[in-house]
């Protein structure tokens, strides 16, 4: 986004978050998420020494594999670049989520299983886009060619967690009425 008022500005930081979703040959769904922080100038780091412009300050990745019910089967973290040598000590922490189901109450579950002083803030932040990318990965089902998003879920009887989660997915709105009429509620007066 460019400023339109003509003021000059200097980039001081860049954060890139990238997520890729996959359907594996064994039928599991997988998401890889990566967070990279860089600075456009050289820095002197207490632990790493000289950091060149564009060299990552943070390079943190996670991988989750889930089944069709969104139960976590595998979880992995890789801390490639961190500001402190102790940061890598949290790499095994996502193992605590194996066996847990992603859905309603997910964020509270993560906070219950992993305390703030037991993990990296950036790793915790990365779980959000990773999980939403996982939902997008699964949205067309396992045979997506030519189909529509969520077509494979039209006749379900259990309300999906995302219904009632945002403006477009509100239960009294046109999208739910069209795609999931079984979960429509009347507008409140």
Question: How would you describe this structure to a colleague?
Answer:
This protein has 189 residues and is an alpha+beta fold. It has 2 domains: 14-141, Enolase-like, domain 1; 150-189, no CATH class. Helix content is 17%, strand content 24%. The protein contains 3 helices and 6 strands; from the N terminus they run ββββββααα. A hairpin with a 5-residue loop joins β1 and β2. It starts with 13 loop residues before the first strand and ends in a 10-residue tail after the last helix. This is DUF2889 domain-containing protein. InterPro entries: DUF2889.
Supply Rg. Answer: 20 Å
State the CATH topology of the largest domain: Enolase-like, domain 1
Low-confidence stretches: none
CATH architecture of the largest domain: 2-Layer Sandwich
- The CATH class label of the largest domain is Alpha Beta
Number of domains: 2
Order of helices and strands: EEEEEEHHH
Q: Given the C-alpha coordinates, what overall shape results? A: globular
Organism: Bradyrhizobium sediminis
InterPro entries: DUF2889 (IPR021312)
Protein name: DUF2889 domain-containing protein
């Amino acid at each position: 986004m460019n400023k339109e008022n003509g003021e000059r500005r200097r980039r001081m930081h860049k954060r890139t978050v990238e997520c890729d979703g996959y359907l594996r040959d064994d039928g599991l769904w997988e998401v890889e998420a990566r967070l990279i922080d860089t600075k456009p100038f050289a820095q002197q780091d207490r632990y790493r020494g000289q950091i060149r412009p564009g060299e990552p300050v943070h390079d943190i990745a996670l991988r989750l594999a889930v089944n069709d019910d969104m139960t976590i089967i595998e979880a992995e973290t890789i801390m490639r670049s961190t500001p402190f040598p102790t940061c890598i000590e949290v790499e095994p922490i996502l193992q605590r989520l194996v066996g847990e189901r992603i859905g309603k109450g997910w964020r509270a579950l993560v906070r219950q299983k992993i305390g703030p002083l037991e993990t990296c803030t950036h790793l915790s932040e990365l779980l959000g886009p990773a999980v939403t990318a996982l939902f997008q990965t699964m949205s067309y089902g396992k045979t997506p060619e030519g189909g529509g998003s969520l077509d494979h879920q039209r006749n379900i009887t259990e309300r999906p967690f995302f219904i009632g989660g945002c403006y477009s997915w509100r239960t009294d709105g046109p999208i739910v009425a069209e795609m999931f009429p079984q979960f429509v509620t009347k507008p409140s007066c």
